[in-house]
# Entry
Amino acid sequence: MTKRLVTVGDLVVDLLLDVRLPVTASDHQMSPTLLLEPGGACSTILAARNLGLEVAALGAVGADFQGRMLLDIMVEAGVDASALLTPARSTTTTVIALADQKRGGHVFLGNYGRGPDIALTNAAREQLKRADVVFIPGYSLVEERLGPLIDGVLDFVSYSPTPLYVDVGPFMAQLERVKAERVLGLTDVLLLTEDEIPFVSDGETGIKACRRLLRRYPSLLIVLKLAETGCRILGPEIDIRCPGFPVAVIDTIGAGDVYAAAFIWSRTQGYALAECGTIANAMGAASVTKAAAGRGAPTCSEVQALLDKHKTGLQLPC
# Structure
């Protein structure tokens, strides 16, 4: 039976430019490329669809050109957007992503969408009832207009057995401590990078900080994304290292978003934790071999090709 993922938060559009970093005042450049692509959780959604998950999106998208474009892309990909709100005269969360494809690194310059507060509607609540997994990207937790929606979703998962996955991201550091503690207390799987550990551990760093989090939240599973070296999965009595896949890196934007999709999908399919980490690593590696993610999110066959190349023995139902 096909599993269903419900994502919570704004749909985001990325304007991607290939530049030489750092960009400084009076350092005028012309990018050789320009891409307008779904970003943020949209990459998670599209990668999940590529793997065969049903996906419903909760949150908002602007009543502007970017919003119409994103909605068209979501609908074409088979995403259930029936509970997604498009308030009149609202704008779409937009990110200018500057990536240095030659030397690596990127910078995000963003503007949160504007519009009325977004609440948990009856339609959104019905989507949550049908979910096998709920996913919240960290940037959604700090967006002011999404506050009522996030509170409603957290209330729902507090009494529901549906697992909650949270991807920390670079903006969760802005979350008030009381709310961060509530989120962590309700989260089943926390995905983050080494740089993001301090955002959820009172400024502490490293594996010791992760282990302190696990003592405080014993039902938590931590998936520590380690870029090209793979990932490490930590939980009570769990410490699994999953090696990465060496590839020629073009652009890392969106790699974490599609990684989340692959890890979620793998777990819904019943793979062992080590296999989930390996499949997600392959998805992330396949992503960084091309510019952006969005509509370019790796397909099941692209992930399978990496798994086969490295003789993992894992077979996906592509």
The first helix runs from residue 41 to 51.
